[in-house]
Amino acid sequence: MDGLKDELGIIAAGLAGTAGDIRNGISVIREFLRVQDRRFWWFVYCCLVGAAIILILASSIPRVIYARDMTKCKQNLHAVQLALERFAVDSPGCVYPLRLEELSEQSYMPVMPTNPFTGQPMRWEVYGSYDQAAQNPDRLNHGDFGYVIVPSNYQRGSAVDLATVDPEDVQGYALVLY
């Protein structure tokens, strides 16, 4: 601020003085404007760089939110997996449930975890093959899952008719997250 007062004082003295003083005042004004011009362009440059950084960060926010929600879905699916394993260990013959409702009926999972994408409890469909589970049905939302049952007589690549599966014959499963 003192430098500006000094420069304005020199300018005022130059305007009140001789022709040489006026030339000195004009050169001081030119130098002052040149410095201000550099400062202006430096400010513009900093604003542009700041705007670019903000745009990059703003574009990455949805991906971070999606990754956080997918992590929560995987944690929820792991909770379902643990309940399925506990059910199998406690059941005679180490079989898995044919219906996931059996987990809540026998208190292995009293409440289905919340789907972070919808805010509702996670929904599921029971499938007889991996191919059926790989096709995302329209009635399930992102964050819901498929439960593929694998009976002991399962042939790889074949579909299982869920109506004919003996509940005591489910020897494996797969969980598919949508």
> What strand order characterises the main sheet?
1-2-3
Mean pLDDT: 77
- Summed up, the domain count is 1
Total count of helical runs of at least 4 residues: 4
Order of helices and strands: HHHEHEE
Number of strands: 3
Task: Provide the β-strand percentage band.
Answer: 5-15%
Terminal Cα span: 63 Å
Spans where pLDDT lies below 50 across 5 or more residues: none
Structural class: mainly alpha
Helix content range? 40-55%
Largest sheet: 3 strands, mixed
Describe what is shown at a glance.
This protein is mostly helical. 54% of the residues lie in helices and 11% in strands.
Could you name the key traits of this structure?
178 residues, mainly alpha, three-stranded mixed β-sheet, 3 strands
